[in-house]
Specification:
Layout (H helix, E strand, L loop, with lengths): L11 E9 L5 H12 L7 E8 L3 E8 L2 H10 L4 E8 L2 H15 L2
Antiparallel strand pairs: 1-3, 1-4, 2-3
Length: 106
C-alpha cells in the first residue's frame, strides 16, 4: 500500500527505554557515564529528552535516518539493553487511528 504523507515530514520520534545490564560493573558504568557528559549525537539525530531512574531510563530521539539511532545505541550497548518504539504525537495519531477504525468497521 503506497500513499503520500500530506505533511511531507520525514523525521520520526523514537522512544528508547534503556536498562542497565546486570553484568555491568560499577567501573564500566562510571566510565560510560563520564563519556556521556560530553557526548554529542551524530549529525542527523537529536535527543529531545532524557530521563534516568538509576537503573536505566528513557530517551526521546528524532531523526529521518533510523540507522543513526542504531549507531547511538551501539555506543552504549556494553552497559545497557534497549527497547525502541517509534512514537507519534497524539494529535497526529488520533485522526489516523480514527481513519483506520472507520475502514475496519465499514
Amino acid at each position: 500500500l503506497l500513499y503520500s504523507n500530506p505533511k511531507q515530514e520525514t523525521s520520526m520520534h523514537y522512544m528508547v527505554i534503556y536498562t542497565l545490564k546486570e553484568t555491568s560493573s560499577p567501573s564500566e558504568v562510571a566510565a560510560l557515564l563520564r563519556k556521556f557528559q560530553s557526548w554529542q549525537p551524530p549529525a542527523g539525530i537529536t535527543m529531545e529528552a532524557n530521563w534516568h531512574n538509576g537503573q536505566g531510563g528513557y530517551a526521546l530521539f528524532r531523526t529521518d535516518d533510523y540507522t543513526l539511532l542504531g549507531q547511538v545505541l551501539a555506543q552504549y550497548s556494553g552497559c545497557f539493553t534497549f527497547a525502541t518504539d517509534p512514537v507519534i504525537p497524539a494529535k497526529d495519531m488520533v485522526p489516523a487511528a480514527l481513519r483506520g477504525l472507520e475502514w475496519a468497521t465499514s
